């Protein structure tokens, strides 16, 4: 009888201890949030201007250097596109990123085109407001990102006005 009381006491203590550990595990575990599996990168690629001013200037093929800095814990990124064509321009934007799945982010950014000179760059030749829709794809099991986006610059041309539209894509290296 003493053995039975001993085993019941030990069994009760063991069961309570296991229940306590299990309860602590369940209560202390935080749920996971869906986040893209990649973050910041630097990339290069071609750009193609799809618009021109009233003088017929603007259509061109150029290059782009793209930088993305992903803010941790927020679906926001700081992005910059540097265009090299008949003229140069820099377009910093802040984007809202929407993870489509673990490898793909779709985004919409807003920013400013800083362009100088009289010859149009792929995004115009004067300072203007810009929207930047795009998509980033993280290549699985690597540090490679494939990106594609468009820059829509409003009132982007000095002579003749009008909007500038440029599409670009390329390959980036995550950091």
Report on this model:
Helices cover 15% and strands 48% of the residues. It has 175 residues and is α+β, with helices and mostly antiparallel strands. The protein folds into two domains: 1-30; 41-174, Porin (Beta Barrel). Strands 1-2-3-4-5-6-7-8 form an eight-stranded antiparallel β-barrel. The longest helix is centred in the N-terminal third of the chain and has 27 residues, at 2-28.
Précis, in short:
With 175 residues, the chain is an alpha+beta fold. It has one helix and eight strands, in the order αββββββββ.
**Which spans of ≥5 residues are poorly predicted at pLDDT below 50?**
29-37
Number of helices: 1
CATH topology of the largest domain: the name is Porin
C-alpha-based Rg, rounded: 27 Å
The total domain count is 2
- The chain-level structural class is alpha+beta
Placed side by side, the strands forming the largest sheet appear as: 1-2-3-4-5-6-7-8
Largest sheet: 8 strands, antiparallel, barrel
Distance between the termini: 68 Å
Number of strands: 8
Helical content, roughly? Answer: 10-25%
